[in-house]
Amino acid sequence: FIEDQEWQDFSATFNNVMAEFLGSQLEPNYIARLKRRTYVEFMPGPQERRETFLVIREIKTMEVVTVIETLSPANKRGSCDGREQYLAKREESLASRTNLVELDLLRGGKRLPMLNLPAGDYFAIVSRGHRRPRADVFPWTLRDRLPTIPIPLKQDEPEVPLNLQAVFTTVYDRARYQLSLDYTA
After folding, report:
1. What's the pTM?
2. Residue 31 CB: number of other CB atoms within 10 A?
3. How far apart are CA 78 and CA 137, in angstroms?
4. What tens digit of pLDDT does each residue of 141-157 get?
5. Which of 50, 54, 56 is nearest to 9 (CA)?
C-alpha cells in the first residue's frame, strides 16, 4: 500500500529516520548525511524525479565510506532512464572501495542484477568494498519482521547494526499513514 500510494513521502522520510538511528552509533568518527539525486525520466514525456540516499563519511577525512540506497520504483522499472542511471551509479560504487547497502523495500518492478538471489519479497544487500564481488543478502517476506542488518564502515572498524523494523515503525507512526492509505485498494 505504501509502495503504490505514498512511496515518495515514505522513502525520503525513511532515509531521514535511518540517519537519525545511525547517528549516535557512528559517533565520534563518522556522520550520516542525506543526499539528493535529480534526474529526468522520459515516460511518456519528461518528468523530473528526485530521490534521496544516505552517505556515511569518516569525519577526519570526510571520505565517503558507505552509501545506503533505498531503491525507488524508477530504479526497478525495466527500460527506464531512472533504472539506467541508478545501475550506472551502482557500477561506479561497486568499482570502488566504498561499501554499498541497497534496500529493496518494493515488491513491484524488476530486481536489480545479482547472481543467486534467494527467495524473498524484500531484500537488503550489504556489499563491503573489501569483500567484492561477494555480498551478504538479507531476504524477508511480507509476513516477516524487517531484519536488523550490519552497516559496514572502514575495513577494520566494527559494523553498526541498523534495525530496519524500528526505522519502518517510526516512519509509519510519524507520518500517520493509517490515515491516508486506502487498504481496500
Report:
1. 0.90
2. 16
3. 22
4. 999 999 999 999 999 99
5. 50
